[in-house]
Amino acid sequence: MSTRMDDTPGAATFNTPAEAYDRHVGRYGRELARALIAAADVRPDRRALDVGCGPGALTSELVALLGGDQVAAIDPSMPFVEACRRRLRGVRVEIGAAEALPFEDAEFDHALAQLVVNFMTDPQAGVGEMERVTRPGGTVAAAVWDYAGEMTLLRRFWDAAVAVDPSAEDRDEGRCMPFCAPDELAALWSAAGLAEVSVVPAIVTARYEGFEDLWEPLERGVGPSGAHAASLAADQRAAVKEELRRRLDVGDDPFELTARAWIATGRVC
Ligand SMILES: C[S@@+](CC[C@H](N)C(=O)[O-])C[C@H]1O[C@@H](n2cnc3c(N)ncnc32)[C@H](O)[C@@H]1O
User: Fold this and answer.
1) CA–centroid distance, residue 173 to ligand 1 (Å)
2) Mean pLDDT across the stretch 143-167?
3) 143 CB contacts (<8 Å, ≥6 apart)?
4) What distance, in Å, lies between the first and last C-alpha atoms of the chain?
5) Which of 84, 107, 137, 197 is the most exposed place for a label (fewest CB within 10 A)?
6) What is the pLDDT of residues 245-257, one digit of tens each?
7) What does the pLDDT average to over 222-241?
8) Are 254 and 210 in contact (CB under 8 A)?
9) Number of the ligand 1 atom closest to the C-alpha atom of 97
10) Which residues pair with 141 in a beta bridge?
11) For residue 15, how far is its CA from the centre of ligand 1 (angstroms)?
């Protein structure tokens, strides 16, 4: 039985238009996907699964490397699955969650999850499922943001939100995401029984046309940061917006931000 968004509370803030996601953290997706693919040692002639594919940043990079018939993807968000199917015609894109993957044992050489582990309802079960569908000798790999440190956009956003209202601290992803540092991530990978576990940093960049270009998708409620921005009363939202602009020290001219992710890899025994 497939698992849909309604059954997956961690995914609730991604039941949003794919285009809004693209303009929020989706900007970093393709570059991060290339780093994840390299770390997982994905090579032509292999078969790969993208778990929590969203609108398809990693799926697209996998298809470019392996071909559409060698790639499958899955996500509980219907708008994201529809966008991924639309963007990558012919690729098998399922609606469902990591914790109950509708794939055979050892069906893939690689199972990858980009920016998903922290949203899984049961990360141990999700990583266990990724391992189950990967053949012995294959790799299970994931990228997570360094929410507490050098994911500049989200770090500055939550710092601004907490400066305006200290009670926002409970929603700060740097505090509430369980896997945003190398030790926690490595422990999750090792506990799943994966071998040769490694966690490495990856730094990616996104370009903005100006501060409004950065802020507008936040108001559309994408992800925990967007959900927080959208939930605020107009005066509070304006205060967070101004505080964020001040902390980023940017204006109407184009600028770039960097973001650090941690990439965990492990080999199936
Ligand atoms: C930050 S987005 C990342 C999307 C995509 N991987 C990317 O890099 O652009 C998080 C994704 O995880 C999905 N998700 C949430 N809970 C999930 C679960 N239990 N299993 C699989 N995916 C999940 C969401 O629907 C969303 O698409």
Assistant:
1) 15
2) 98
3) 32, 35, 36, 113, 114, 115, 202, 261, 262, 263, 264
4) 28
5) 137
6) 999 999 999 999 9
7) 96
8) yes
9) 20
10) 112, 265
11) 10
Residue nearest atom 27 of ligand 1, based on CA coordinates:
54
The residue count for the chain: 269
- Ligand 1 midpoint to CA 252 (Å): 31
Whole-number pLDDT of residue 2 = 39
Q: Which amino acid is at 80?
A: F
φ and ψ of 180, to 5 deg: -130, 20
Please give the Cα distance from 29 to 256 (Å, whole number): 15
Residues 19, 127 contacting (CB under 8 angstroms): no
User: Which residues contact ligand 1 via a Cβ below 6 A?
Assistant: 8, 10-11, 14, 25-26, 29, 51-54, 57-58, 75-77, 80, 97-99, 114-116, 119-121, 126, 223
The predicted structure's pLDDT at residue 11: 65
Structure tokens at 242: 């101004």
**Token pair in block for residue 215:** 């802020």
Q: How far is the CA of 10 from the centre of ligand 1 (A)?
A: 9
pTM of full prediction above 0.90 = yes
